[in-house]
Amino acid sequence: MRKKAAKPPKQRKKPARVWHQYIPYGFMGTVFILGFLALFAVVAGELGLAGRIILAAMVIAGMEYYSRRFISGPSSLEHEFSALADFFCFALVPGLLMYQLAFRGWGILGLIGLFVVVFGALIRLSLFKLYNPLTSQRGFIGLPVTMSAACIALVAQLIGPEHITPTWRLLFLGVMTSLMFLTVSTIRYPNPTERPAVFGLAALMVAVIFAGGQAAGWSSGLLLCGGTAYIIIAPLGAGKRERG
Fold this sequence. Notes:
- It is built from eight helices and two strands, in the order ααααβααβαα.
- By secondary structure, it is mainly alpha-helical.
- It has one domain.
- A two-stranded antiparallel sheet has the order 1-2.
- Helix 2 packs antiparallel against helix 7, helix 3 packs parallel to helix 5 and helix 4 packs parallel to helix 6 (about 165-185).
- It is globular and about 50 Å long.
């Protein structure tokens, strides 16, 4: 008797994506578009507007984080798209903004300041893509690149290029170098958008900054102070939680 031919194994169908799994792409695309608009604002000399657009992009990036709770896990395409959007909006454009704000006309030192901001963020995003052991713990190794971008955007709300003195330039160069060192360090930082109350308050203050007026200056100052406190104090709390 002839043996029946073995049936080829059935190929498993890839699970179809439901509509909510495409939500992060919308947020990532919005971040990229806002970064593009911020770049135009920098080129046009509207540095305050560019800073406000970067702050708005940070709010959208936080919304992307919350949208990921609806999906099982990001795909490789989402990782690539997110990394490129973050580099463009939170590294390249803030670096150019700081250059126009404080480092332009400073010769080689100004170019060094621009290089520090952009290259440090590039290294940070590359390391985060390859090595992020705290993904399941909702934390970061190294300072998130969005925090340095936020500091630059907030400084642009509080001071203009006409008020920059050589002392301010040296101060900004030292601060930017320190921030870039923290981004590539092994210091543990908690996710600043993990708590909805904190994220909601920050988003509200960004809205106040967009509204303009005297309240915008106060909100910029408060956010800058809050960001400075996060940079200095947050690693201490993260270390305690890790030991506990």
